[in-house]
# Entry
Amino acid sequence: MNTAPVLQITGLSGGYSLNKPVLHDIGLQVQPGEMVGLIGLNGAGKSTTMKHILGLMSPHKGEITVQGKTRSSDPEGYHSALTFVPESPLLYEEMTVREHVEFTARAYGVERSDYESRTGQLAALFNMEDKMDTLSSHLSKGMKQKVMIMCAFVARPALYVIDEPFLGLDPLGIRSLLDFMLDLKKSGASILLSSHILSTIENYCDRFIVLHRGKVIAQGTLAEMTEAAGLRGLNLEQLFYELVQGGK
Ligand SMILES: Nc1ncnc2c1ncn2[C@@H]1O[C@H](COP(=O)(O)OP(=O)(O)OP(=O)(O)O)[C@@H](O)[C@H]1O
# Structure
């Protein structure tokens, strides 16, 4: 069956100044119900790609569509079709955990009953039930990251963009997050996930995109990428090492 991609990036070049692009002709897709791992060394361009998807930066060239919409053709439809977990938590110090989650739910037009059941489920899943009425400034680093995750998951958009979510999470939190993402995927959601923890994401992502110095140097399933590189049998970490060392 030929399905339309939820996220499609075509010929994207972009960066922080016009005369110094960081991304060079990026092309990638994420299909419905797919979890795709975006991997690359520090500075490869993963967060910059995500900032372009979120509309925090404008492409120098190329196009990004989410469910067939661009930011310029349908800004509201585009933005309501995705949520984001940033690499570092960004919270309002004077707001409680519950207020953050409620604020996000309202922004995404989540029904009250859905908000209540999802919040209860997420609080239990991430072991945050006794912190729901705590000010964010009184939370630990890992708990702050959990608030960002709960905010992204209280809405049910078509696409979740998740930037290195595991840092700071305890082992139970990491497992809960991975299992929750698998459930979302089964329900048809699409996930673009960046992480350096390759041994963890190897078993969870359907496909991978390898970014190196702002270019896509490989993409596909692990089997497809190892086959294409003539390196069958390697695990993701071994293949990644070979690809980026070879690209030096
Ligand atoms: N605010 C900024 N202003 C100017 N250049 C930036 C800015 N943020 C990132 N860069 C540059 O853009 C390039 C890509 O950085 P980016 O943050 O996208 O990398 P990344 O793949 O997410 O890395 P990491 O794994 O360290 O998070 C780097 O060369 C970096 O120096």
User: Anything to note?
Assistant: Residues 91-156 form one domain. The chain has two domains: 1-81+158-248, 91-156.
